[in-house]
Amino acid sequence: MALDTSNKREFKVVGTRVQRPDGIDKVTGKAMYGADVTAPGMLIGRILRSPHAHARIVSLDTSAAEALKGVKAVVTTADLSTPEDDYFADIRDNCLAREKVLYDGHAVAAVAATNKHVAKEALKLIKVEYEILSHVTDVDEAMKADAPIVQEGRADESVHEGWSQNVTSHFEFGHGDLEAGFAKADKIVERTFKTAATHQGYIEPHACLASLGTDGRGELWCCTQGQFLVRTKCAEILGIEASQLRVTASEIGGGFGGKTTVFIEPVALALSRKAGRPVKLVMSREEVFRASGPTVSSSIDVKIGMTKDGRITAGQAKLRYQGGAFPNGTVEFGSQAAFAAYDLEAVQTLGWNVMTNRPKEISYRAPGAPMAIYAVESVVDELCQELSLDPLETRLKNAARKGTLSSYGPTFNDIGLVATLEAAKTHPHYSAPLGKNQGRGLSCGFWFNFGGNTCVSLNLNSDGTVGVVEGNPDIGGSRASISMMAAEELGIPYEKVRTVITDTNSLGYNDVTDGSRVTFAVGLATIEAARAAIKIMCSRVAKIWGIDEEAVVWEDGCAKPSGPNAGEFPPMTIAEIAAIADNTGGPIAGHHEVNADGAGVSFGVHIVDTEVDPETGATKILRYTVFQDAGKAVHPDYVEGQMQGGAVQGIGWALNEEYIYGEDGRLQNPGFLDYRIPVASDLPPIDTVILEIPNPGHPYGVRGVGETSIVPPLAAISNAVSRATGVRMTELPMSPPKLLKAMSER
Amino acid sequence: MVKVKLWGSLRTLADGNEYVEVEASNFKQLLDQLSTKYPALKPQIKRGVSLALDGVIYREAWFTEISDENEIVLMPYMVGG
């Protein structure tokens, strides 16, 4: 559905900063999160987890636990089904281990008991005999030919003979003659970078309440980014029919990609089916760290050539991503995104997805892109330093624009990178003075965005108000944006619309809330659903007036006669039409289902000022500005929130956050005391500049904004630190001990 | 005939070609033809691919019309967070 340019629209609701519909419930504690749901006769579930990074399960004896008073069910992998598809089998085996435990924290068995104390006691009675195997947690180590093998036979057809069995897939992208490109360069810089695995750090741990009968009919309430996906996965893993499992998504306390799969839901359902009672299962924070999905850690080589006047002649990146103990698909996105901001004659990216004895990675905002672009943007910055070039002018000189053959294959059409860079260049931040031990860095960022399967119903109530029913959990303000777009199209106030997120049996299939897709795709479907309802309303009014349907138009929330032969009739408001709907043909609703495409790629530029304490190596963020092409910003507060939130998560990734594994392969810091995410006192105000370059693939010009903002901070901060200290850091996080050591070795 | 650009690591599975040509007027026909003409591509196509049509990325959309005037690029299946 293309941008509506036939009649240039003056927005009345879209673009305003209306009150968020979930705000009061959230700040007063009224909102119902995953752990807040209860049911009569409910049992409490607990999971036994592996203390080993890699071990064979020699025997598993649950009899003593089953015999404990108050225990109603114990389940192992034997209680789950056998999906034919490897994709589902891997998810099952991640939920409950089969034959081997593959990482510290891997679930082995679960109990359901009358209270948490009995459940905890029962876990101690489960006897597991392990044969400990050698393990590997580092990506470069895992790629060596003699590395411990995490799983055998998982490589796809892209993997070359002789590579480690831990390599599961390989990708290559690019175009042009690299050798000739590097030969044209006046300066070539080659660097190797490493980034740590980080966690999405959502406030709400995974939680669910499951009720499943032996007849395969069940209910599941859970915090998730996609109830339909949960239903599909659970049905496969439990061997039940999707129609018989109704999944309802709770309010969600953050997701960022981390709640796009299942970890505990199939286990809770299996326990409930065995016990014959509802089972609540809630992860502790330690379990979230050890056994949900962080992002990948990476090792990346980058080589870039540049002329003295700042033209990039060639770029190459080799990206190695470990995604935990199962095959993953992330390096292909880093490989495609790495050089996306540049117009290059010669470029090549090579990527390897690798298994290690760590938890299975899951998406985290723009999965795979931040670390790739960190490495490339660090080398671009270093070249600018070496050649005494302005980093922003250099990026402008090389920026991808309409007609550029992208580094990942297609030719770009309308993109907003140059406009974003120009906005950054003229912003006062870029020319503000800096003090001692301070440095300024910048970086470009990129993400693809997509649309996907979407289904929306819009119902006209008898008082003229409107209910929108959609199927995507609201992780970033989508309910407000959807209501705003419905109100805009119908010509009624925002307050007259309420959007709810429904369960899997009340609406057609919806893809997960990911890929920055919801405001774009659900908004598009909502506009179409509103147009369908308007068509019905105009038809009803035409009958009342006794004129042709075509002679009735919809303006400002009213049906009006239009054209020379329509006659004179006073406008009928939506409330007047709704009040007599019973008499004119029954309920009025609009519905639309679509697999939305045309989301449009997104670019951003971040500028950051840092100050590094020469005594401690601590980095302070002094000033931060985000520039991003958002398409039409439906609710600017939320758009700014997405831009600020991504920047903050990137600050944590750059400076402090990391999964730390010991020699024994066990996670050393599974808690927020030792895994340090930024808090308010670590941060300055994050300024935002929204560029509204309409997306031609959406009727209002909307573009996804949720992911691009986490991409630039890693490089922007590293570049700022480099300019503050004279030290080029090549490992993230740049925690104080690491930075202090590097500074002392200058 | 439409011309399809393959990403680098797929080329060895398609006789070393960066571009392949198939008879197709929509995405479904294109993917079917690719699987038939280059069976080694079939596992990747089955796992999932995206297609870029004149710079716009599609994840599914079998019946999207294509012609020899379009730029068509095969890409990995898009995911997000």
From TrEMBL, chain A:
Keywords: Molybdenum, Oxidoreductase
Gene3D superfamilies: Aldehyde oxidase/xanthine dehydrogenase, a/b hammerhead, Aldehyde oxidase/xanthine dehydrogenase, molybdopterin binding domain
Keyword field contains Chloroplast: no
One Pfam entry name: MoCoBD_1
Family annotation (SMART domains): Ald_Xan_dh_C
Domain annotation Aldehyde oxidase/xanthine dehydrogenase a/b hammerhead: ranges: 28-134
PANTHER family: ALDEHYDE OXIDASE 1-RELATED, XANTHINE DEHYDROGENASE
Record's protein name: Xanthine dehydrogenase family protein molybdopterin-binding subunit
From TrEMBL, chain B:
Record-linked CDD domains: Ubl_MoaD_like (cd17040)
Organism superkingdom: Bacteria
Name listed for the protein in its UniProt record: MoaD/ThiS family protein
Organism: Pseudohalocynthiibacter aestuariivivens
